[in-house]
């Protein structure tokens, strides 16, 4: 009896659809409490971000209207959880009765098709428009138990490969460059003090707009390694350890270094533009750039990280900016410049296995335009 139930037409369709969306299109199941006879799948990189496979019997317009209402509520929760502004959803109904006369595609964001067999998929213009290869991918040489075994094996293999990729992304690879930068910051603070030349070093190497415009470009980088006092140094070193080690692990050492120094320089430019000629020192701009990179990474991996971006990363950034505005002597312009620079350079460099080529090209265009604009303001307009 179990074999007959498992291999009826509806279950065969469900298995084939799951095989396609999981192994071919990289959709992931969504765990929803209280939802029965439905399978929800999501891939936030696709135009159609959510696919529902509905095996529940929809027998009239009232039940279909309730299904739409329930779907909107669930999609609203998914959008909040995944930090998504827009979300196209496709519902594939496998058991819709003839008494349903309501237009099933009246909402362009909640697309739907009525499927009783594979011919319905072949005939669907909507399917051919959004998933043009679905019809061909549902053709198998295996049947019955062999088909079930193949589909199960392929899905399990895909899940293992996906888990392996995630493990490589999140595993601890060692934050060697983060520690190197921390040590350099400490050396730049202690050595001048021991030599009784700290004031001279600050004057010679700080970020100072008029001096940079006069040709002392090295200040854009050297100022990142100077700190006003021991508390300033310790706070930045701790923040660099916490955030930098994360970015170095998940994005890689090369991208980490590029993000750190580009963000620091962008912070320096913002100080030159908005600081009114006041000298600036510290690694805060670079650290805020790493925070921006963490936001980008969290956005791409929001399915796996849940609400971490909204509940932890963004509040942390907001709190630090607020402290900067309320506390005297803190160069919050460098923080803002570093944060923007970190987001833009991370978009351009891309997040492995997540960023598309199109997104990287757009990221580089935005980065180059932004950099040209800021450099012009720093050296020409604000001079």
Q: Which outline best applies?
A: elongated
In CATH, the architecture of the largest domain is Up-down Bundle
CATH class of the largest domain: Mainly Alpha
Derived from helix and strand composition plus strand pairing, the structural class reads: alpha/beta
How much helix is in the residues?
A: 55-70%
What's the gyration radius in Å? Answer: 27 Å
Strands, total number:
5
Domain module count: 2
Query: What can be said about the biggest beta sheet?
Result: 5 strands, mixed
What is the N-to-C succession of helices and strands? HHEEEHEEHHHHHHHHHHHHHHH
Oligomer: single chain
> CA-to-CA gap between the ends?
83 Å
- Strand content of the residues, in percent? 5-15%
Mean pLDDT: 88
Spans where pLDDT lies below 50 across 5 or more residues: 1-6
- At CATH level 3, the topology of the largest domain is Rhomboid-like fold
Key features?
383 residues; alpha/beta; Rhomboid-like fold; 2 domains; five-stranded mixed β-sheet; 18 helices; 5 strands; elongated; disordered N terminus
If you had to describe this structure to a student in words, what would you say it looks like?
It contains 18 helices and five strands. The model is unreliable at 1-6 (pLDDT under 50). The chain is α/β, with parallel strands linked by helices. Helices cover 65% and strands 7% of the residues. It folds into two domains: 2-168; 172-381, Rhomboid-like fold, CATH 1.20.1540.10. β2 and β3 form a beta hairpin.
Provide a concise account of the structure shown.
The protein contains 18 helices and five strands. The protein has 383 residues and is an alpha/beta fold. Residues 1-6 have low confidence and may be disordered.
């Amino acid at each position: 009896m179990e074999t007959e139930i498992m291999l009826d037409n509806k279950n065969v369709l469900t298995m084939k659809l799951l095989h396609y969306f999981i192994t071919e299109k990289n959709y992931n199941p969504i765990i929803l409490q209280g939802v029965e006879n439905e399978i929800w799948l999501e891939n936030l990189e696709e135009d159609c971000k959510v696919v529902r496979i509905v095996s529940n019997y929809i027998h009239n317009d009232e039940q279909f209207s309730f299904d739409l209402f329930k779907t909107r509520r669930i999609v609203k929760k998914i959008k909040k959880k995944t930090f998504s502004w827009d979300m196209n959803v496709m519902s594939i109904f496998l058991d819709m009765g003839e008494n349903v006369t309501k237009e099933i595609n009246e909402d362009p964001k909640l697309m739907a098709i009525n499927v009783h067999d594979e011919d319905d998929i072949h005939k669907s213009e909507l399917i051919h428009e959004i998933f043009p290869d679905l019809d061909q991918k549902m053709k198998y040489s295996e049947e019955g138990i062999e088909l079930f075994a193949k589909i199960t094996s392929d899905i399990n293999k895909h899940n293992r490969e996906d888990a392996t990729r995630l493990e490589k992304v999140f595993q601890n690879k060692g934050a060697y460059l983060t520690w190197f930068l921390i040590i350099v910051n400490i050396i730049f603070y202690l050595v001048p003090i021991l030599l009784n030349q700290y004031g001279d070093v600050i004057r010679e190497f700080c970020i100072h707009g008029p001096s940079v415009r006069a040709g002392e470009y090295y200040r854009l980088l050297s100022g990142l390694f100077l700190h006003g006092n021991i508390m300033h140094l310790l706070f930045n070193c701790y923040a660099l350890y916490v955030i930098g080690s994360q970015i170095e692990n998940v994005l890689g050492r090369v991208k980490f270094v590029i993000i750190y120094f580009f963000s620091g320089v962008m912070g320096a430019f913002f100080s030159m533009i908005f600081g009114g000629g006041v000298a600036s020192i510290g690694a805060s701009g670079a650290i805020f750039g790493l925070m921006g990179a963490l936001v980008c990474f969290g956005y791409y991996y929001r399915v796996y990280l849940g609400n971490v971006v909204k509940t932890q990363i963004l509040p942390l950034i907001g709190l630090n900016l607020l402290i900067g505005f309320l506390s005297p002597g803190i160069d919050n312009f460098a923080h803002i410049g570093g944060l923007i620079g970190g987001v833009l350079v991370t978009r351009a460099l891309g997040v492995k296995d997540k960023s598309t080529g199109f997104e990287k090209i757009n990221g580089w265009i935005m980065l180059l335009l932004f950099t040209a604009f800021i450099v012009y303001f720093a050296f020409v307009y604000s001079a």
